[in-house]
Amino acid sequence: MHHPYMWFVLAALTLVAELILGTFYFLVIGVSMMLVGLGGVWGYLDANMQGVLVVALSGLGCWRLWRYQQIQRQRPLEALEVIGQPVVVEQWLSPQQARVQWRGAHWDARLAKGHASLFGEATYIISAQEGNLLWIEPFTDIGSPPVKLH
């Protein structure tokens, strides 16, 4: 087997592993093996340089992917513009719980502490989010503050 073609076989095996395991790290390694294989077939890389380049490209690609994942995990929830978004109350389950529609999906919602339910007489906005639970509060007019209980 000619040495550069070995990278194509290894890349195919790596991409199959990526499909089975569902991690993007194997995708990065497989793409780097394919690129080095192309460089070897075209005659730009000798055998020693191919191994060094696969390790370097895979390491750099995996590091960049890891950094991207870390940045995405640290992104604050407010950056997603959840707070202050209006919701449509579909059904009141209790005086403090409701089913709402937001962004085309049904969500469980609870009234924020200190707020009274107006049972459809007001527009409700999101004040916080905990997983798939939205905390809402009534918001009757753009110029006025939300209605609060004392």
TrEMBL record:
GO terms for molecular function: peptidase activity. GO terms for biological process: proteolysis. The chain crosses the membrane at residues 7-35, 47-66. The keyword Magnesium does not apply. Keywords: Hydrolase, Membrane, Protease, Transmembrane, Transmembrane helix. Signal peptide: none annotated. It comes from the Bacteria. This is Membrane protein implicated in regulation of membrane protease activity. It comes from Rivihabitans pingtungensis.
